[in-house]
């Protein structure tokens, strides 16, 4: 027998470096609070069910509370020799209360224990993700309202396409974040399930009361198949997948902010507090934080790919491979919370150069569709209208003038259907405001969508601010 908690059938001892390779305490110490919480619920139930005596249950509970206090005061030291957070806490408990500590593990295995801890860990943190997302959405709504009238070029293929409202642009991100919110909200459903009671894989012979434990820990449901309970990591995969989509969204926004802050665009300027300088070039003001979010998207995608790959070939039920589920999940949580916060700060402090944005739509050809639509409304088949305007655009490019700089006679030579009212139609503001069907960029639509967004946020638990 060796001195491990599972050492009964062992005579040979592993070298320290081998122990270190197998250990997870280096990262799963982050489950300490949840491990204690799960153990407290378990031992309470063991006592209530008469599986252990009331006195034994009290001793164990007192010991676990003691460890909770020590943890809060930073007095707990974990050791690699004890492999993981579960064995570390059991060993601390044994030091505190003696051999009765060994009764805590009755009717339980580390397999359902680690799954429970991990579920609890995510269950505790998803609300924070929802709160941060709500805050960012709130910021986008506020900015969309303030900037509804700001006109900018809309792009396809990164070429000027049609003028849009900057507020409308911001609301596109609001919508993406709304879907992110809904995905993380749903993520809670599959996280809110109790694995404890599955024991190693087959359930237990002890007369445990799983519903009581679920209720005590605030779980909505419990796993109904013990094999599934200990081998399911879908809740973590869903989290990583949701986080990946969220980061993809933030990364696209990051890319645009970086681009728009360049000398060439100069549509926006990031606040000094969200920019950095260069150690050699005194003039530089870099969008480091937007770049970092774009960069961190890589590690979040990596986490998802990593865990999908870990899980894909695993036979039921628990396999030690699954110890690899934690680091990326922990890291992803830190990464997304920080990234959402950074974006909130960056967006609410940047300066919008509305004049630059508007100017970019004045002498370009992003109003060409307006002229084509105008001719189509006058009865010309759209394809023909498209060809007429195409020729005018070519002429404009050759002669260096925009459509609205061409005299009426010149426009009429291309199509006699064009009248004096065309100059109003060619203004980018007019182009924006004529797009009134739902989803279009007209200013009044933007303001309506802001209202709709606010109503959505205020329906959230506790309202938009106090979730
Ligand atoms: N440290 C392990 C993990 O994180 C805990 C479960 C270990 N169970 C086992 N039978 N070895 O997955």
Query: Sheet bearing the most strands, described?
Result: 2 strands, antiparallel
Terminal CA distance: 53 Å
- Catalogue the ligands: arginine
Low-confidence parts: none
Mean pLDDT: 95
What level of helicity do the residues show? 55-70%
- Helices and strands, in N-to-C order? HHHHHHEEHEHEHHEHHEHHHHHHH
Number of strands: 6
Which structural class should the secondary elements be placed in? mainly alpha
Q: Looking across the biggest beta sheet, what order are the strands in?
A: 1-2
Strand content: under 5%
Which term fits the overall shape? elongated
Number of helices: 19
Rg of Cα set? 31 Å
Short synopsis of the structure:
This protein has 19 helices and six strands.
Structural features:
binds arginine, two-stranded antiparallel ribbon, elongated, mainly alpha, 467 residues, two-stranded parallel ribbon
Note down, in words, how this protein is organized.
This protein is mainly alpha-helical. Helix content is 60%, strand content 4%. The protein contains 19 helices and six strands. The strands form three sheets. It has a two-stranded antiparallel ribbon with strand order 1-2. It has a two-stranded parallel sheet with strand order 3-4. A two-stranded antiparallel sheet has the order 5-6. A hairpin with a 2-residue loop joins strand 1 (151-156) and strand 2. The longest helix is centred in the N-terminal third of the chain and has 37 residues, at 110-146. It starts with 15 loop residues before the first helix and ends in a 9-residue tail after the last helix. The model has no long low-confidence stretch (mean pLDDT 95). The protein binds arginine.
């Amino acid at each position: 027998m060796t001195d491990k908690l599972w050492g009964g059938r062992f005579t040979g001892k592993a070298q320290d470096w081998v122990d270190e390779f197998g250990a997870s305490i280096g990262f799963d110490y982050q489950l300490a609070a949840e491990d204690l919480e799960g153990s407290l619920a378990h031992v309470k139930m063991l006592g209530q069910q008469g599986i252990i005596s009331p006195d034994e249950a009290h001793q164990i509970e007192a010991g676990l509370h003691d460890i909770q206090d020590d943890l809060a005061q930073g007095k707990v030291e974990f050791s690699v020799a004890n492999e993981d957070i579960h064995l570390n806490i059991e060993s601390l408990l044994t030091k505190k209360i003696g051999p009765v500590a060994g009764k805590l593990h009755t009717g339980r295995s580390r397999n359902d224990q680690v799954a429970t801890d991990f579920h609890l860990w995510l269950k505790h943190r998803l609300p924070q993700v929802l709160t941060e997302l709500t805050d960012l959405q709130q910021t986008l709504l506020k900015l969309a309202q303030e900037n509804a009238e700001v006109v900018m070029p809309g792009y396809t293929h990164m070429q000027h396409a049609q003028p849009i409202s900057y507020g409308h642009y911001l609301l596109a991100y609001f919508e993406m974040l709304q879907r992110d919110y809904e995905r993380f909200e749903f993520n809670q459903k599959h996280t809110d399930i109790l694995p404890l009671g599955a024991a190693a894989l087959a359930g237990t012979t002890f007369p445990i009361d799983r519903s009581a434990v679920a209720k005590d820990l605030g779980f909505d449901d419990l796993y109904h198949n013990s094999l599934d309970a200990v081998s399911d990591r879908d809740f973590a995969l869903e989290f990583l997948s949701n986080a990946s989509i969220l980061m993809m969204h933030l990364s696209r926004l990051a890319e645009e902010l970086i681009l728009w802050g360049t000398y060439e665009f100069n549509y926006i300027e990031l606040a000094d507090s969200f920019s950095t300088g260069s150690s050699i070039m005194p003039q530089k003001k870099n969008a480091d934080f937007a770049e970092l979010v774009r960069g961190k998207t890589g590690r979040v995608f990596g986490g998802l790919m990593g865990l999908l790959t870990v899980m894909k070939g695993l036979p039921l039920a628990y396999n030690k491979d699954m110890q690899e589920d934690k680091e990326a999940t922990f890291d992803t949580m830190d990464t997304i919370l920080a990234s959402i916060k950074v974006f909130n700060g960056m967006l609410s402090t940047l300066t919008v150069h509305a004049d630059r944005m508007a100017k970019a739509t004045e002498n370009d050809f992003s109003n060409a569709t307006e002229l084509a639509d105008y001719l189509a409304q006058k009865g010309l088949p759209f394809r023909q209208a498209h060809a007429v305007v195409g020729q005018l655009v070519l002429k404009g490019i050759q002669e260096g003038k925009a459509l609205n700089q061409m005299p009426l006679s010149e426009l009429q030579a291309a199509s006699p259907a064009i009248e004096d009212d065309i100059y109003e139609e060619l203004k980018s503001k007019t182009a924006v405001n004529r797009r009134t069907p739902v989803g279009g960029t007209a200013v009044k639509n933007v303001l309506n969508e802001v209202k709709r967004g606010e109503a959505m946020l205020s329906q959230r638990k506790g309202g938009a601010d106090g979730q």
